[in-house]
Design brief:
The structure is a single chain. The protein has 107 residues and is mostly helical. The chain has one domain. The chain is 62% helix and 0% strand. It has three helices and no strands. The longest helix has 45 residues.
């Protein structure tokens, strides 16, 4: 017989940051590299960053950079899909309305 029941904890997503973004100063530069070469890995970007800024960045920040690159890619993909879908729907609506216009004028 169990008389003790633990209370149910409500889980909330962890959205806050405990540290400052180390790539904040060069993020626009990183984004331009990703736009030019979206298939670049975070490791290759990290190596280039360490080459350009030797005393500011180190190997231990690779995982953080991977998270930021992953977020950039998902946002870029959503933007691409939205633009593609918007263009596709506009094209289909034009075809639909032109066909409807033809039917109404023909009748």
């Amino acid at each position: 017989m169990n008389y003790f029941q633990p209370t149910e904890r409500v889980r909330i997503p962890h959205t806050w940051r405990t540290r400052k973004n180390p790539f904040e100063n060069i993020w626009t530069e990183i984004c331009s590299w990703l736009e030019i070469g979206p298939d670049r890995t975070a490791k290759s970007i990290s190596e280039e960053i360490r080459f350009r800024y030797p005393d500011q960045y180190h190997n231990g920040q690779l995982r953080t950079l991977q998270r930021y690159v992953k977020a950039w890619r998902s946002e870029a993909l959503l933007t691409f899909e939205y633009e593609w879908l918007k263009d596709e729907l506009t094209f289909k609506n034009k075809r639909l309305f032109s066909g409807l216009f033809f039917v109404l004028n023909y009748a």
